Amino acid sequence: MPFFSLRRRILFLLLALVLVNAAGALWTAWFLEVTQKAYAEAVSRDIAALLSAQKLESALVMQKGYTTYYALSGDESWLARLSEQTRNFDAAMRKARGTAITPHAQAVLSRIEAAYIRYAYERERVIALYRGGERDAGMQAHWKVRDQFLAISALCEQYRAIHEAALAEEETSYRAKARAAAAFAAARLFLTVGLGIALALVLLRQVLSPIRRLALTGNEGLDADLADDEVRALGYRMRKLENDRDQSLAKLEQSREHLVQSEKLALVGKLSAGVAHSIRNPLTSVKMRLFSLERGLSLDPVQKEDFEVIAEEIRHLDTIIANFLEFARPPRLRMQPVSMSDVVDATLDLFRHRLDSYGVTAAVLREGRLPLIPADPEQMKEVLANLLVNSCEVMAQGGRITIAERLESRQGSGDVVVLDYRDDGPGIPPDLAERIFEPFFSTKEEGSGLGLSIARRILDEHGGEIRVIQKADRGAAFVLELPIKEAAVGKNPDR
Predict the structure, then answer these.
(1) In contact, 466 and 339? CB cutoff 8 Å
(2) Less CB within 10 Å around the terminal CB: N or C of the chain?
(3) How many domains does the chain have?
């Protein structure tokens, strides 16, 4: 594969975009984490130092005036308050020592401490003069103590200003780092935009343009909106190709089925012709001779039963041969207006004796007689006859057959006549539901496997269909549908 192939160029640009954004995001996250943490620590430290400086200054200010108040009133309670404020100042001084980190701050704090020691000593001497009654000497010393107090107060303000400046410096440093991060983010943005533009050009020129040509080729006459959207146009063409492929596969499968069916029909045609000429005529002769023998002989019950069995088997063979002949050379339809209700009644009357012999009852659910449709009544009787024979053979111990008649509407195809056929037999296994309509497929040992195949062929020739319905309980269920042609509408005799 060439190094500058389309695939590698797209992968390279995508990888570059991912790496730039991932590296930028990781660096930004790391930078913000480190910077914010350092700034928070510095701000916390400087604020603690500033608060201690303010508390130190406040404790000093609170000592102002108590000595004067004592000198004027002589009340010892003022000295007690002074002692309390002195202890507060000592506590503030100890806390300030723990927060004074810079050498300059420590130096100023040492000067405050030294000046305060001298101030406290001189103040005690002033108090002692006042207590001794030497007011003039005490007042003179008192003025010197005030000057010392003001000097200490100035040092406290200087100490507080140092920490205010440190806090402002940290803020300035943090803003500078934030500007650097913003510059890096801007550079990353420009790089991402550049890589994105390069990727877009590659995709546009070497991917989307060929896709557009591919989508529009052979899709002439598309809507303007669809033609402007390459992806939708390509999707439209792909769906069209898929539909064409599906139709081709369906036609191929249908052709294969027709070929197989044609081969079977050809084989059955040859077989049935040979059977018709080689078996049917001798079989008819045997049947007539047995009939003559039965009438001319005096038979006991056992012999009569044997004759009936032989005759029944001969009729069974004759039926199988007739099915072969009908499947190979189906008779020509003789279409005429007929109501399927009449076909159902005629078939049930024809099979009344057989239904009774098997102990099977048949019921017809009908709201009114069905309308006339163009159909071959004899062929439709054969469809129902095949279903009735199958039901009787599987319900040897008796059962019930129900035929429900109704009209239904089909969207796009008009109204249809529906016969819902159900019995109480063992039913049809789900894995055999589709195979029962195949020629020569039968679950009965003596069956030819052509009854349902003939029924489906007859329904197909009438433009209808027959399908098996899976039931939750026992029994087989079939649905027969026949279209109502326009020529037959309105010719219902009983509606």
Answers:
(1) no
(2) N
(3) 2
Of 156, 183, 205, the domain-final residue? 205
Give the phi and the psi of residue 337 in degrees, each rounded to 5.
Answer: -65, 125
Write out pLDDT tens, residues 152-175: 888 888 878 887 887 788 778 878
Q: Quick one: 59 and 198 in the same domain?
A: yes
Q: Is residue 409 part of a domain?
A: yes
If asked whether residues 151 and 12 sit together in one domain, one would say: yes
Domain range for 410 is: 334-488
In order, the DSSP letters of 75-135 are: -HHHHHHHHHHHHHHHHHHHHHHHH--SHHHHHHHHHHHHHHHHHHHHHHHHHHHHHTT-H
What CATH number should be reported for the domain holding residue 108? 1.20.120.1730
Closest CA to 419 of 450, 373, 451, 360: 373
DSSP 396-432: TT-EEEEEEEEEEEETTTEEEEEEEEEE-SS---GGG
Rounded Cα distance between 53 and 3, Å, is: 68
**Domain end among 151, 173, 205:** 205
Q: Are the beta carbons of 373 and 337 closer than 8 angstroms?
A: yes
Residue 406 vs residues 323, 386, 471, 480: alpha-carbon distances, Å: 30, 21, 19, 11
Q: What is the band of 493 on the pLDDT scale with cuts at 50, 70, 90?
A: very low
What is the tens place of the pLDDT at every residue in 220-232? 555 555 555 555 6
Alpha-carbon dihedral angle through residues 419, 423, 426, 429, given to the nearest 10 degrees: 10
Is 19 contained in some domain? yes
Torsional class of 481: left (φ above 0), alpha (ψ -120 to 50), beta (otherwise): beta
Instruction: Note whether residue 393 is domain-resident.
Output: yes
Q: Are residues 193 and 340 in the same domain?
A: no
The answer to whether the Cα torsion of 21, 24, 27, 33 is positive or negative is negative
